[in-house]
């Protein structure tokens, strides 16, 4: 098992994401999914009540203004 940060820049045969709790920072889902050698080797676990996956894109504007 690797964290998304540790997997960045590496290629792995299989990628599995458990997104029951949305804990991803901006761009992390892309990084996680792009590490797989094949799209056929990606599995994403979603909560049972999710019909359309949604991840919020949170931007802290006060950081950008300084």
Summed up, what is this model?
This protein has helices spanning 4-7, 28-34, 61-65; strands at 15-18, 42-45. It is α+β, with helices and mostly antiparallel strands.
What do these coordinates show?
Strands 1-2 form a two-stranded parallel sheet. The longest helix has 7 residues, at 28-34. The model has no long low-confidence stretch (mean pLDDT 75). The chain has one domain. Helix content is 24%, strand content 12%. It has 66 residues and is α+β, with helices and mostly antiparallel strands.
- Helical run tally: 3
Ends apart, CA distance between termini: 37 Å
Low-confidence stretches: none
Major sheet, described briefly?
2 strands, parallel
Number of separate strands: 2
Oligomer designation: single chain
Helix content: 10-25%
Return the average pLDDT rounded to an integer: 75
Question: What are the secondary-structure elements, in order, as H or E?
Answer: HEHEH
* Beta-strand share of residues: 5-15%
Q: How are the strands ordered across the major sheet?
A: 1-2
Structural class comes to alpha+beta
Rg calc: 14 Å
Q: Looking at the structure, what is the overall shape?
A: flat
Number of domains: 1
Key structural traits:
single chain, 66 residues, alpha+beta, two-stranded parallel sheet, 3 helices, 2 strands, flat
Write the layout of secondary structure elements.
Blueprint: H1 4-7, E1 15-18, H2 28-34, E2 42-45, H3 61-65
Parallel strand pairs: 1-2
